[in-house]
Amino acid sequence: xxxxTDLKPREIVEKLDKYIVGQTEAKKSVAxxxxxxxxxxKLDSDMQKEITPKNILMIGATGxxxxxxxxxxxxxxxxxxxxxxxxxxxxxxYIGRDVESMVRDLTEAAVQIxxxxxxxxxxxxxxxxxxxxxxxVLAPGIKKEKKQQDQNxxxxxxxxxxIDPNQLYAEPAEEExxxxxxxSTKREELINQIRKGILxxxxxxxxxxxxxxxxxxxxxxxxQMGIDLSETFGQLKPSKKIKRKVTVKEAIKIFTEEEAxxxxxxxxxxxxxxxxxxxxxxxxxxxxDKITSKGQNNSGQVSREGVQRDILPIVEGSSVKTKYGTxxxxxxxxxxxxxxxVSKPSDLIPELQGRFPIRVELNDLSKEDFVKILTEPQxxxxxxxxxxxxxxxxxxxxTMExxxxxxEIAFEVNESTDNIGARRLHTILERLLEELLFxxxxxxxxxxxxTQKYVDDKIGHIVVNKDLSRYIL
Length: 473
Prior knowledge:
By secondary structure, the protein is of the alpha/beta class. The protein has three domains: 9-110 and 272-361, Rossmann fold; 122-265, no CATH class; 367-472, Helicase, Ruva Protein, domain 3, CATH 1.10.8.60. 51% of the residues lie in helices and 13% in strands. The protein contains 21 helices and 13 strands. It has helices at residues 9-17, 24-41, 45-50, 66-77, 101-138, 155-158, 165-169, 181-196, 220-223, 229-236, 248-263, 266-280, 301-316, 350-353, 367-375, 381-390, 400-416, 423-432, 434-439, 452-464, 466-472, and strands at residues 56-59, 81-85, 142-143, 177-178, 203-209, 241-247, 282-286, 319-322, 325-328, 333-338, 358-361, 394-398, 446-450. The longest helix is centred in the first third of the chain and has 38 residues, at 101-138. The protein is flat and about 80 Å long. One of its GO terms (cellular component) is HslUV protease complex. GO terms for molecular function: ATP binding; ATP hydrolysis activity; peptidase activity; proteasome-activating activity.
């Protein structure tokens, strides 16, 4: 599976510009790092082994776009991506998350990407089979009597302890049925109607496989060795079928997914996912400044430095066992991130510093940046609230003066309290539109204009009262 790594750095920056305001230097750095991956894959195998990713360290306050740049980057190129917080890990020997779990989580993300890609390749065939299954449910055949299952040879071992080995190991057989010419004709008619969408809203009762339970706590230590206990036990017992009442349209989706999974090879998915993780994976390590010992109590110093030393081999390149196979991290791209208010990058252990050669300092957001954030991106906050209230047939219009006033308030509150960057806009807009969001379902269709006066009336008094703004905005 290939990711879209052939994009030019300029094209990557242009795509990031659609979602993130400013921070041009950081965008350029990640774009170059991504293009270098493409360049590396065009070299001979010996040279490929020698060239490692130039990991990036992003420095800047919270809420200015560090995580969003990395997340959007992964979306643009369809690469496996995970965000982890350095403070969640503990040194080996302590109770807590093992640093290798970040690689296992990244591999899980890769498996989902590859599986979805494989499903797309067989979707046509899978959907045909799904429609045939629904037609069988709507026009069932004449059921035959079930034959008694042969005695399982292991029955003697389980005798007297209340376990039926036939149920434990045998796959549940499909019920045999007789299909008359009349039933066959009826099914053909139903298949045509389903294809045309005529029966989309009709309710149907279907049997679906019960979702497997998530991993139990006892499985966590084994997972670190690449063993999944839940899967091991799951293979001993066949999947349980449960009944659900859904529309035909929903049933098509459910059955198509089931049929697609039957048509694709799981082992191929796992092998491809491991390869994708190794060559295209991106791990974003947030709050990396919090695991330095600078400005902290001595009691935790050993543990924090220990976490750095545990992360080091992963970033340097090591082999990590996962349930899908061994993953080598030599060519995984790591993006570190931190505010570095109390500490500085040089407070990280020297070996780890050297593994993040590209340093990018992101700029604090200005009032003008807030105006752009509110209006320019495809997912701009103002557009989000307009869309939400549009579902209640309320047309909300923000005047430019109102947007500038909101931006001004966000900038002032960030300056006078903690600077939380663009996240301040969320708290201000939620407070500003609180009453409208509450009343909207009871209002008739109409237009609401948000003016500068409206903004001052709703939240102006909170901004003036500094003590109040600390708690509310």
